[in-house]
Design brief:
By secondary structure, the protein is mainly α. The chain is built from 12 helices and no strands. It is a multi-pass membrane protein.
């Protein structure tokens, strides 16, 4: 919703201000300029990116129209799940969760938290490291190093769409200049026309520069920033799992281990200690 509102504000401010100053909006409608700018940008997009980058970008763009799914309730469900798993380990031993981590979709522990279970990336991350803990062949330092490497890979992979869109936005002003130059060339070859008509051709040519800059900074550039924000937001769930499991490996009780995980969350979504405690108590009664 904010994306659409932002675009409306951009258009209203630019075109509304131009109209109020006495400008004629009709002159700004130049489909051929848009064809040159858009076509060149799409062509450069194909040239500068491989199939994986393009597919990742196409998959990421629809998510920009959706609100954030990373709410306080989701984080509390995640930490409650971690608490349940670590409590079971503390009471019955690491081998007791083997069935839960092998088939999480059939596990009574995971099934209590469908909002977490539907995120297969976080479930896979969690179960993979719980499986390593069950194996007993790695210490906390080795697991932490492996987690850091995986999170770095996740971050680089998730940053691809933002980089692709940012590069696209960076090129649009230049493509706008290309369109403007083409318009000037057309004007120069028509130099024998009356001054009024030449002025109109020059105005149409300058629209290319205007459109390239407006599209870059008013439409495409902000998308790259929004994708980066969504990536940073998604990484917090992984960091929460990482810190919680490492705290457990270092000998902390489940309640304290979950508290470690709570502390890494952003303040806007981080539940208070009392809120998390109440949520865990309610989940136990399910």
């Amino acid at each position: 919703m904010l994306l659409i509102i932002g675009y409306i504000v951009v258009c209203a401010s630019v075109f509304g201000g131009y109209a109020m100053s006495g400008g004629h909006l009709a002159i700004l409608f130049q489909p051929l300029e848009l064809v040159m700018i858009g076509g060149a940008a799409v062509g450069a997009l194909f040239v500068g990116n491989n199939n994986k980058s393009l597919k990742a970008t196409m998959a990421a763009l629809p998510t920009l129209l959706k609100g954030s799914r990373y709410t306080k309730e989701l984080y509390m469900d995640l930490m409650s799940l971690l608490f349940d798993i670590l409590s079971k380990v503390r009471k019955e031993g690491l081998m007791s969760i083997e069935g839960d981590i092998e088939t999480p979709e059939q596990s009574p522990l995971f099934s209590k938290y469908p909002s977490v279970l539907e995120d297969h990336h976080i479930v896979e991350f969690m179960t993979d490291y719980l499986r390593l803990m069950v194996s007993g062949n790695m210490d906390a330092f080795q697991i932490e190093n492996l987690m850091d490497n995986e999170l770095e890979t996740h971050h680089h992979e998730g940053a691809v769409p933002a980089h692709v869109i940012a590069k696209l936005g960076d090129g649009l002003p230049a493509f706008g200049i290309v369109a403007a130059v083409m318009g000037v060339v057309h004007t120069m070859e028509s130099v024998g026309m009356p001054p009024a008509e030449l002025g109109l051709l020059i105005a149409k040519a300058l629209v290319g520069t205007f459109l390239g800059i407006l599209l870059a900074y008013g439409f495409v550039g902000p998308l790259a920033s929004l994708l980066e924000q969504k990536l940073e937001e998604s990484s917090k769930m992984f960091q929460c799992v990482k810190v919680t499991l490492l705290a457990s490996l270092n000998g902390y009780a489940p309640a304290l281990a979950v508290e470690f995980g709570r502390k890494v969350l952003y303040s806007t979504e981080r539940p208070t200690f009392a809120e998390l405690e109440d949520h865990i108590k309610k989940s136990k009664s399910k």
